Amino acid sequence: MKIMKKINMITAFLAVSCLLIVSLTFNSCAPTKAVADKSGAQLWAENCQRCHNTPAPSSFGPEQWETIGMHMQTRSLITEKERDKIVDFLKGSR
Amino acid sequence: MYWFILLVAVNFNKLSAQNTVTFDSTVLDRINALENAVNSNRPGNDHFMVVGLTTFGYTSSSNNNTIGGVSTITKANSLADANHYEFSPMFLWRHGKKFLMEFEPSFSNNGLGVNWADISYFAAPNLILRAGYFVLPFGTYAKREAAGWIDKLGTDPMGITALPSTDYGVEAEGGLALGSMKMNYDVALTNGMQLNADGTLAGGNIVDNNNNRTVTARLGLLPFSNSSLELGVSGMFGKVGTPGTNTDGATGNMYALDLNYVKQVNSVLVNIKGQYNIMSVSDVNYINPFDATKTYTFRNHSTAGFIQCSLRPTGVDNFLKNFEIAGRYTSYNAPGHSTWGADQHTVTLGLDYWLSWRTVVKATYDTYQGTSTASQALNAYTGLTTTNTFSLQVSIQL
Fold this sequence. Notes:
- The complex is a heterodimer of chains A (94) and B (398).
- With 94 residues, chain A is an all-alpha fold.
- Chain A has helices at 2-26, 33-36, 40-47, 62-76, 80-92.
- In chain A, helix 3 crosses helix 5 and helix 4 (62-76) packs antiparallel against helix 5.
- The radius of gyration of chain A is 18 Å and the shape is elongated.
- The termini of chain A are far apart.
- Classes of the chains: A mainly alpha (94), B mainly beta (398).
């Protein structure tokens, strides 16, 4: 009975996760206009500090920002559009 | 005569012009080649880069253990210990905008190890695929907050780091827009952990100890449009036992909740982080460490959690903006009647001074109290322990 309860919990967790992932990966809800219109500077200020201090644009070179942007996307799981806007801002503000 | 002088002058000019053109072209070619060579080696124009971190410092502790009415006090200090020294360069190499290789070797605790070594494929805007040796998506502390130059305190929260955080396998992750909110997902299929002889868990090996993969998954939700709050739920499920041994068939079911809130309130940056882990391993008859012909068992259920708050007056216009204060409460309840059972609590206070956005000096004070719940029959009971630890640490992101 106890084992069945655990199996049910695990199955439910995985089912909900898979459903969410599949549905959102292929039918990603569009961001609202206010969110979509955010500048790279605003996204840089909002997202970097979620984990660490916000780096200055002069901290790295243009190609390095591209690499760091990809690395940070794997850690913070920001969207690709957010990453591109932040990287463009950092490259353009050096 | 005039005709002769004119002819010589014209020919000289022609010769001179030809020489100049030849000379300029050669030099220009060489200058261009040098410029290209310099540009390809200029920092910031390369697809390969080395970053990383280092941590070093000093720690001093006083330990008071009381068992059977007898107290023993021990003191220790060191310029570096397992928690306060690390040198970890991280190599990043990207191939266009589709592939990223990450490799972080680490020298710490007298040994050379590897924090992660993996390759990511950016398959779609919302989908990153990864393979290799990577940090598991269980909670957020190990993956996002543990680095010395990120962590506001000089010590890790106990229990949260008791669970191995890396494994070999494959992973899929991504971030998704959700109207004014955002969500992210992270699912990994790995070799899984292994159950030790005493009921603790060891990290995943490159060769699986059983024919069962472990699934680890995390879902994160950022309910506010400014991304100030993130809430996450994680699960890790798989067999941890080794066939042909007393642990054959044992399974591990782990759950975690995590929270991250970062918001500028007037001139102060408020940073609140937390994680709560529930770790369960199915019942196993463990071999008695004093008599291999006998076994013992216990309910292998642990909980660990921490809540941390830090404040930094980033909005003021003087030296105070470089200071940050932090406090954390940690609780770790290890299984009773095992050889390592204990009910443990730690209060940690810290004062940080930021020399730059990625260099920090941290003064941290931990007050630990642990009451042993370990088996007295196995001679594992360790009584009541209190430990006060002061550490001074410098952390740099390279």
